[in-house]
Amino acid sequence: MFDYYPKCIFCFCELPKDRKGVGEHVYPKSIYGCWRIYDVCDNCMKFFGDEVDQLATKNPQIIKAMEKLGIGKPEKYYEQIPFVGEDTNDGRAIQMVYREGNLRTKTTKKEDKFIECPEKDWENIGVAWLRKAIGKKLSEEELNKEIDVLRESYKQLTPGEELYSAKLGYRTRKRQVKNPRIDSDTLPSISPLVAKIAYSFLIYVDPLMFEEDDILRRHARYGELLPEYTINWCSDADHSDKVDRFHRIVIYAGLLGTLLDVTFFGSITWRVVFKKSISYELKGFNNIKATHVALVIDFSDINSKTKWLGIQEENRKMEYRELII
Predict the structure, then answer these.
(1) Looking at the structure, do residues 153 and 277 belong to the same domain, yes or no?
(2) Which of 158, 182, 206 is the last residue of a domain?
(3) pLDDT (tens digit, 9 = 90+) per residue, 142-174?
């Protein structure tokens, strides 16, 4: 069932017979994935490491799960998430970032036209920008005096008020931001990672079962678009308050075809929908005909991760056995 392939399963280039290295982590190592496969070439492994695996730690649900479980580096990962708020004065969208446990305005500049930055960054970023923008229009002494005046006058402002420096030719406005939230419109899609995990699972369970296999491969490796509703956020399977220390992949029959659930931390699930129905004959397990096949990556003990293969035959409960791969 988990035999080696002579070619890379993602780009089909020839692979050396002597497989060395750490292999490709199907679930990223950063989120405690311990299932590794050795049928992926170096170029594809580099691509996944650079472009795909990081999608896990850019996903708010996954980061929140790690935070609840007290594992990983959620504080660091939140810094990759885009946030947005609203200017209390004009309602304009303000880009925000998470730093040192707090949300703050994202520093943005446009040549010598303007700068937006958090108040705490004024001294080391704002003043430096102002000195560069003014150039030699004022002497160093005049510039320092005017900056001191701005600094003291700014303290008296209330949100929305501004002051103008005739000497510098710039206005300064005190801003207040409300309704900070994750900027879901600019979040990267996790679907390439879900496609990589689903395809890797299918290629070993039954590589000839679905035409959709190749659609997943091309989406994961080359970014080709998926048909609509191929990968779906599965809200009915999500119980974010019940996260746990395992990941799971399970494929089973649905009403109109076959469903494959890719689950992170026991509850956060994306569902892959196939049009064809399943009927697995697991040749490596005495030709068992299964209605459900699952792989569970268990890291309840961080130092001793375990993989379990689950098989459910018709009218029977799922049975698990430890898998050494």
Answers:
(1) no
(2) 182
(3) 999 998 998 889 888 888 888 898 888 888 888
Query: Which DSSP symbol is given to 189?
Result: P
Does residue 87 belong to any structural domain of this protein? yes
AA identity, residue 257: G
Tokens of 177: 């931001």
Q: Do residues 273 and 245 make contact, with C-beta atoms less than 8 angstroms apart?
A: no
What six digits make up the tokens of 227? Answer: 């048909």
- Output the furthest CA–CA distance in the chain (Å, rounded): 87
pTM (predicted TM-score): 0.85
Torsion angle in degrees (nearest 10) through CA of 138, 142, 143, 146:
-130
The DSSP bridge partners found for residue 295 are: 249, 309
Distance CA 36, CA 39 (A): 9
- Give pLDDT tens digits for 50-89: 999 999 999 999 999 999 999 999 999 999 999 999 998 8
Residue 311 structural domain: 187-322
Say how many domains are in the chain. Answer: 2
Q: What six digits make up the tokens of 101?
A: 């446990």
DSSP 3-state helix, strand, coil percentages of the chain (rounded to 5)? 30, 30, 40
- Exposed, middle or buried, 110 (CB in 10 Å: 0-12/13-18/19+)? exposed
CA–CA gap between residue 146 and residue 150 (Å, rounded): 6
Of 126, 152, 182, the residue that ends a domain is 182
Residue 109 pairs with which residues in a beta bridge?
Answer: 115
239, amino acid identity? H
Rounded Cα–Cα distance for residues 205 and 288 (Å) = 12
Q: Which helix (H) or strand (E) holds 255?
A: none
SS3 60: helix
